[in-house]
């Protein structure tokens, strides 16, 4: 067994640590990319995965239907890997019934068409005033304070409030989510399965209550939230089964808050660590859109796509990936591919806008990207305007990172004032 930059290389398999690798992941991604566009990894769960390390190959994989998400192909790969349960290591697709992340077309297209409208740029733009008011309210609570936790007191309430309001999840139950969601997204956590079950049960009950309102003939616009719209669609054209409804709600709730919390947290962190970029943004507030794109590229919260499984043997990147193999794109590594992004390890908000992979690519391209961008652009603009002197209250090595599949600080202690 060889040792390469802290990686154990056993024959052709490279052992990739899970959480530890997320603390300082970029030397690892660079090392993997130097080995080739497709590398054979063994994840912390002991599962063999073909990792995609370079931009061009990532695009080719994500637009190729032979890299499948359907349960038939995933089951075959699971069987081959000797795992019986959902061992993807990426629990947001771990629900048993159909949702966007565990189906291929035509099922995927049917499910996606049901929710696409609710997340379209036009519909999300209608939320701008609400997001601004929420951000201002959170910032007003920090007035006169000397320090704060910008995750617990800022990023998290923005992420959870917006996705819950959009889906129609009532206020009183939100306090349980953080605990359930964090554990459900922590591979190997003792309470992972139980937290997943609690969240699923909560959503099933909520949907039953909303369905009763719809069945009792409540006017559709009396409760114009996404869950009610999906329930109504189920009634009119049988578009969704009951289990699909719960599974879809689960996916949107989970994918829709931890990720944006991570984006806002990582953005604040990067600006505090690059004060010259913060000054630049203060001088040119119009740069905010591309500044958030640069945060997504340089330190996005989602480091790997969910798993695909090959539906047949596929020749790619100089090798043949056999049918029934797991494949995962290493997004954060591809976002620093020097062929596409010159000087990729430099955080530079004036970098020419060019699409990055933070939101994925192809059929499973992120549903919630417009919402995520609106929250992050508004949150960062207003937070940095209110607190241009914000700085880390601990050394960067002491930042407590969330032990989930999302790269995000669990807490972000900052100090205000000079
Ligand atoms: C898919 C990233 C916010 C809902 C994805 C994928 C990525 C991603 C990389 C593709 C996964 C794959 O191909 O395996 C992010 C990031 C976010 C974010 C970085 C925030 C910064 C959101 C929000 C929602 C959301 C706010 C709200 C609903 C989804 C859904 C999918 C998805 C439902 C699956 C789409 C499909 O399979 O058709 N996201 N996401 N995401 N995201 Fe996001």
Automatic annotation (TrEMBL):
<dbReference type="InterPro" id="IPR036396">
    <property type="entry name" value="Cyt_P450_sf"/>
</dbReference>
<dbReference type="GO" id="GO:0016705">
    <property type="term" value="F:oxidoreductase activity, acting on paired donors, with incorporation or reduction of molecular oxygen"/>
</dbReference>
<comment type="similarity">
    <text>Belongs to the cytochrome P450 family.</text>
</comment>
<dbReference type="GO" id="GO:0005506">
    <property type="term" value="F:iron ion binding"/>
</dbReference>
<keyword id="KW-0479">Metal-binding</keyword>
<dbReference type="GO" id="GO:0020037">
    <property type="term" value="F:heme binding"/>
</dbReference>
<dbReference type="GO" id="GO:0004497">
    <property type="term" value="F:monooxygenase activity"/>
</dbReference>
<dbReference type="Pfam" id="PF00067">
    <property type="entry name" value="p450"/>
</dbReference>
<keyword id="KW-0560">Oxidoreductase</keyword>
<keyword id="KW-0408">Iron</keyword>
<dbReference type="InterPro" id="IPR001128">
    <property type="entry name" value="Cyt_P450"/>
</dbReference>
<comment type="function">
    <text>Cytochromes P450 are a group of heme-thiolate monooxygenases. They oxidize a variety of structurally unrelated compounds, including steroids, fatty acids, and xenobiotics.</text>
</comment>
<keyword id="KW-0349">Heme</keyword>
<dbReference type="InterPro" id="IPR002397">
    <property type="entry name" value="Cyt_P450_B"/>
</dbReference>
<protein>
    <submittedName>
        <fullName>Cytochrome P450</fullName>
    </submittedName>
</protein>
<keyword id="KW-0503">Monooxygenase</keyword>
<dbReference type="InterPro" id="IPR017972">
    <property type="entry name" value="Cyt_P450_CS"/>
</dbReference>
